[in-house]
Amino acid sequence: MFVSLILFFVNKEKSLAPNLVAMIIAILSYIMLVNAAYVTNYFIIFPLFYRLMAWTIFCIGPLSYIYVRSVLEQTFRLKRTDWLFFIPVPIYLIHRIPFYLLSSEQKVAVIKHNLTNLKLILLEPEGLFPKGWVAVARILLGVIFLAAQCRLIWKWKAKINKQKQFNVHNQTVFTWLQSFTYILSISYLLVFIEMTLHVSNVFRLDYLILTNVGLSILFICVYLVVKPEILYGMKGWLQESTVKTEEVVAEPVERINPNVPNAEQLTKKKSI
Fold first, then answer.
1. Which of 27, 71, 191, 219 is most deeply buried (CB count within 10 A of its CB)?
2. Burial class for 249, CB neighbours closer than 10 Å (0-12, 13-18, 19+)
C-alpha cells in the first residue's frame, strides 16, 4: 500500500502507467488485508466494512489490461470506451444492496453465519444474485481481460524484436510486462482452483492464494525498486505508420512550378 501511495503522489507528471500500477498494488493490498481480517473478529466489531470495497476486485483485470496496452501503444490517457470495462462495478454494488440495508445487528448475524462456513464467503448468499454467480463472473471477467492482455504481449513481441536498433530499455520494459502477466496468470489459476473446490476444509487454498497475492505484491514492488526505469515506458516511437509507402506518389516535375513550361510545351512552340 505504501508503494502505491508513492507511485501515485510522487508521479508529478501524472502519467497514466504509474497510476495504473499504483491502483493495482492498492487493490492487491486490500485483498491481503481483507483475508487477514477473516481470521479475526474485525468484521464482527465493524460490520459496516464487510465486503465494503469488494467491488475493487472487478477492477484488477481492466486495470492490468489497460496498463499493458498503454505501455505498448505509448498512450497517455484513457480511451472513452475504457470506462465500459468497469460496468461490473455498479452491477456488483446493486447486488450488495440487501446487505447494505440491514441493521448492524442483522449484519453481524450474517457475518457470523458466513464465518462458520468459508464456502458462504465465496458464494455470497446475502446478495441479490443466486449463490456463486458473482464468484463465477469475477473469475470469468478476469480471464477475459487476461487473455486480451496475453494477446497484446504476443502481438507486440515480434515488433519489439524487429526494431532497427536494439533498445535495451525497451527489452527491459517488455520483459517486465511479460513477468507481470505471468504473475496474474498464476493468481487467476489459483482462484479458479479455489472456486472449483469451494474452499475445501481439506485443502486450505485460501491460505495458498493469500500467500500468492503477498508474493505478487512483493515481486512487483521489488521489480519497481530494482528497475524503476520501467515506469517510464517504451523509448522511441513504435507505432506503425498510418501512411503506406505505395500511397505516396511523387509529384511530376511540371506540377512543381506551373510557370515553367515542360518539354512537351516547348516542342509545340517550336513546331508553330
1. 71
2. exposed
